[in-house]
Amino acid sequence: MAPRPVLLVATVAAAVHLAVATRYGWHRDEFYYVVAGRHPDWGYVDQPPLTPLVARLAADLPDQLLALRVLAIGCQVGCVALTAVLTAQLGGRARAQALAAAGVAACPLFVGSALLFGTTVVDQVVWCATFVLVVRAVRRTTVGAWLAAGLVAGVGLENKDTVLVLLAGVAVGLAVFRRDVLRGPGPWVAGLLAAALAAPNVVWNATHGWPQQRMAALLSAQQGGTLGALAQLPVLLLLFAGPPLIALWVLGVRRLASAAAREDRWLLGAVVVVVVAFVATGGKFYYAGPVLAPLFAAGAVSVEASDGRRGRVGWPVAVAVSGVLAVLVWLPTLPVTTANDLRAVSPFVLETYGWPQFVDQVRDAEARMPPGTPILAANYGEAGALQLLGPAAGLHATVVSGQNSYADWGPPTGTPDEVLCVGTWAPGELGAYWADVREIAPITYSGHVDGEETDLHAAIYDCRAPRGTWAQLWPRLSHLG
User: Fold this and answer.
1) CA 377, CA 362: separation in Å to the nearest integer?
2) Is the dihedral of CA 321, 322, 327, 328 positive or negative?
3) What does the pLDDT look like over 419-438, one tens digit per residue?
4) CA atoms within 13 A of residue 78's CA, in its CB half-sphere
5) Is residue 227 packed enough to be buried (19+ CB in 10 Å), middle (13-18) or exposed (0-12)?
6) For residues 187 and 180, what is the distance between their CA atoms, to the nearest angstrom?
7) Ranges for the Glycosyltransferase RgtA/B/C/D-like domain (predicted)?
8) CB 396 within 8 A of CB 425
9) pLDDT per residue over 145-200, tens digit each?
């Protein structure tokens, strides 16, 4: 690998992310990861245990949010560096390595994922590392090289089940284009190692009725199943790849399909299998996003081989344009009112804004309630914000929720005689659980900024006269989402 240009790209990327890392605030998912990590287990209804465990450890540091964001940025830098390594493996020299690395650093998919620490950004670096290690193992053919790939894939399976699709893609790609590789013991030993590392979460999932599969089915249905995924595919290939960088992944496809890349054509087979599998199962469009890394790598090799003078200017300009747009739209760089205007394009940035205001509004309402009144939040983001930001704001009430793994952690002690219900409840929903429901105040953000809570008319309610005990209400309050 050419260390200097790649190091420069990685340093610029890290510096840009760090400059705005904590400008707005926490993301709702980060609250959930930390709280889940404080309930250690081999799995949760919506994910394996790795990211919650790491998030919990980071949140034990003095600056919780900065620690989480540094982890996210580290994953982003890892993707940049690993793509450069992959480019070198495909025959790219310094120019190709720098271009591929810069492509990942400027790609909206990778930039936006590093906005927060979560399963997606960890998944991306696992995929990039797996591509690198499998290419290495195919070349070396040693069991040790394959074991390294199996180790990374197995750890990745404890973060996100999407790695299974990656491994299926690799297996099909090798079976079609490099069947000779599968005659040795290496790939099979690597698969066994990955399976062994994934086993604890699989056992947990099986003994709990396969909730992660139910969650995946729910998410697929919410976006319209296969047809919805197919409709979202252009979003990945055109918008999230970075419009100025479309030609780079197209060149990557052409390169891997050419005779010059015959030994590495299995990578193209893996990419096709991954995309088809996620579309067929109704997966979210960004699940397949990491396949852009090998396409960028192969495309950069093609660019270097052509050695055109126009490309020496055009490609840096394309990368710069894509990077600037990605940073402005997918990171908290703009004034919050401008980011609010861009919600239709990038809704995730605004999900990191306004949580302290939310907590303050709930604290003020809770102060008027009888001592010991519990708080029931409609979703995990609201519950996590109250639990993690509440104590510093003077809120010390018990906070529970029925969404996802919060439901497994159970209701509060005592009785539901009077409960402060907070969040995005459907009209009349609370009336099914309490006979006397009074709205105290709607949730609002300053500066006419919108968010999920304001979109769905979140509010704070004083709920009395329960229609059952906690034991009777809790199964009905529990839900996936």
Assistant:
1) 10
2) positive
3) 999 999 988 899 999 999 99
4) 21
5) exposed
6) 11
7) 46-204
8) no
9) 999 999 999 999 999 999 999 999 999 999 999 999 999 999 999 999 999 999 99
- pLDDT tens digits for range 38-73: 999 999 999 999 999 999 999 999 999 999 999 999
Q: d(Cα 188, Cα 192) in Å, to the nearest integer?
A: 6
Q: Which letter does DSSP use for residue 432 in this model?
A: G
Q: How many CB atoms lie within 10 A of CB 65?
A: 20
Residue 448: its pLDDT value, please?
A: 76
Residue 146, token pair as written in the block: 């394959």
How long is the chain?
Answer: 481
pLDDT band at 309 (very low <50, low <70, confident <90, very high): low
- What residue type is assigned to position 46 of the chain? D
Tokens of 264: 């590495």
Quote the pLDDT of residue 478: 96
* Tokens of residue 224, six digits: 């319209």
| Number of CB atoms found within 10 A of residue 195's CB | 15
| Tokens read off for 55 | 């998030």
pLDDT at 232 (0 to 100): 86
Q: Which own/partner pairs from 53-57 qualify as long-range (CB within 8 Å, at least 24 positions apart)? A: 54/117, 54/122, 55/30, 55/117
d(CA 297, CA 123): 18
Distant-in-sequence, close-in-space partners of 446: CB < 8 Å, separation ≥ 6: 357
Nearest to 237 by CA among 226, 246, 247: 246
Per-state percent for the chain, helix, strand, coil, to nearest 5: 70, 5, 25
